[in-house]
Target: Coenzyme A biosynthesis bifunctional protein CoaBC
Amino acid sequence: MRTPGEGATADRPVRRAEPGEGEGRRPGPADPDDPAPGHPPGADLPGRRPSVVLGVSAGIAAYKACELLRLLTESGHDVRVVPTREALRFVGEPTWAALSGNPVAADVWDSVHEVPHVRIGQNADLVVVAPATADVLAKAAHGLAGDLLTNTLLTARCPVVFAPAMHTEMWEHPATRANVATLRERGAIVIDPAVGRLTGADTGRGRLPDPKEIFEVCRRVLAGRPADLAGRRLVISAGGTREAIDPVRFIGNRSSGLQGYALARTAVARGAEVTLVAANVALPDPAGATVVRVESAAELRAAVLEAMEDADAVVMAAAVADFRPAAQSGSKIKKTSADPDPIHLVKNPDILAELGERRREGLKPYPSVIVGFAAETDDVLANGRAKLARKGCDLLVVNQVGDNLAFGTPDNAAVVLAADGEPVEIPRGPKEDLADVVWDLVARRLA
Model:
């Protein structure tokens, strides 16, 4: 990537992302004596470990919370497990105490002298409930406080994350949907459950997301990101398309999908409802995102157009093949002594340009904000500016690709070009940090 400011013009300099873009804390109340949400009293004391309350409600997925607890403790967090009484029928108190290193109680009458029903929530940097049953979601939405966990939820002034797990019919019931909407309106992060095998032979939406992905959401929330995308519906494409030559071979690219998945993960942590259109990606589904799997550019186009029906923003992070074979062989092409026939290519649809054109012409549906990605090997900013003008998007994230750059790496660097403002340079760092800067810029436009 070019050095800071390289490629800038006199009328449009490249601005470096400010400290805090991609790493700021949640905004707090105006009263300086009132601790900000996510910033309880004593949070900045030297040597203090971030305090996390892990609420566990009575679902069969409670055993998976043990893995989430391990991830939280091993990353240096002080975790207090607060199960419901019924949850202890799935995983017992000794297990939670041994894994957390802290005492475990489910009742407000335990250790009354410490006033746990108030203190636990007051001192927390984060409360995460995993699994969150329909019962606990209903109690939280209506402010009921019949046990230690629901009391903790009422007294917490920090970010709260719910990871629901239940049968599909329960998740889709109007009462549950209304409770989820209420919690989200109040600023809670409610992660949509995953699709997969449920209790017994049932399959559908309602499965607890992978504990590692729930942990990633918690990590981003603890980093202090604002919930400025709450209520927003976002569509993100990721990965690289493949255009079949025959049943065995294809034309493809090196995209791993890591940047698109980072965009999805960080958007969920900021409260958004995310549809992730994934092209040939071998990564675990980000917690809370609805994943639509595709292979070719045509399939990706169809999935994006369908998903953006009610989307506020579309981010095209996938590497879409520009060309495809004019004809596909129905059987494997055999190697013979003769030279192979040439493969005639035709253009694929330009999905990003099509989104911009739909908006210009007022063809609904179209998103309010359109973000594109440009992978370049040379003349990075010049090619990026030409592409921004050609595609008609609001933001274009331009990054240099090549050996050990961008594709398949955990880090990335980019310059974000804007149709209505100065470029912003994002220095090399984790792809989640780049994603947060992109969402900062998107959130401002949506606001």
User: Anything to note?
Assistant: DSSP finds 13 helices and 20 strands in the chain. The two ends are 31 Å apart (CA to CA). Confidence is low (pLDDT under 50) at residues 1-12, 23-45.
